[in-house]
Amino acid sequence: MKLLHYLTTAAALSTSTLALDVLLPLYTYPGGTTSLPDWQAAVDAIKANPTIHFYVILNPNNGPTGSGCDLTYGCNRDWTTGIAKLTALPNAQTLGYVYTRYGDTAQRSVAAIKADINNWAAWATAPTWDAAVTANIKVHGIFFDETGPTAATTALYRNLTTYARSTFGARAYATVLNPGGQVDRNAEAALFSYCSAIVLQETCWTSAVSTDCPAGTVPFSYAALKAGSGLPYDAGLRGKTSVLVHQFHGAAPTADNATLLAQLKGVAGLGLHSTYFTSADWSRTTVAPAPVGVFAALLKQARSAVAARSAVPGEGAEGVGFADSTRQWVGKPGWD
């Protein structure tokens, strides 16, 4: 991989709108000597869209190790072989999954969380199924799932994110917090200051009840996003906000390419950090009508449309003025 840095001067951007990135929960098994279809589809989509930055969340076993792992770092050769395909791509940034039980340290201790952080940070090189290849499996960030959204938990997440940053050291690094919904207004400024992005809405396209979509799930629409409901209260934090959508299928409204493109244009126009839509759950990337390759191609179209609109006087995107409005990814030699 190549090192990806932020340009921090306003002159670096030609418009006031950031390019929407992808936050891809790749919660699928990679395969062995040959990648399984859902893993390979993600690799192919990343290769086919070099101008899009993909944050790829790795999750072998509800974290970096456990049943089925026979390597101290890297889980097993299936994982090291699969991850090597990602780390070879300059626009893929791997994040390690760590669950935190919404800040309830009686359910998951700080020591257990930090042990996962230590494990992810220690991933470096490991053997693969190719005897001639020792893979680069370095991870470049942490995805903190089940983030506590209240002021009572902010000290914990300051502790955890500070610890993660110091543990990873100088390595290019990102932190994403996932409360799966809105954070309390009095916790918002603190939590956003600790991380690269927060998932303020993780929901479904359909209202049909499933494991991913419990009863009462309100179907996603970018038009329904507003401050306090999928968007931060402080509009200046939109550029650090992510939304994730499961189960993009069905006919109310019709889940097709045109609908997905319209939704992605809307999300991009709000100036958000990242998104991902899947037509199944996070373990499947190949299910129509939004397999990962189609999603990425439509996201590219949406980004172009919003950028073009922003370049027209009086036609700027909705999401202007956010705090990190100078964020722009640039490939640099040396991404390790």
UniProtKB/TrEMBL annotation:
The keyword DNA repair does not apply. Residues 1-19 form the signal peptide. InterPro entries: Spherulin4 (IPR021986). The keyword Electron transport does not apply. It comes from Bombardia bombarda. This is Spherulation-specific family 4-domain-containing protein. Keywords: Signal. Transmembrane segments: none annotated. The lineage of its organism: Eukaryota, Fungi, Dikarya, Ascomycota, Pezizomycotina.
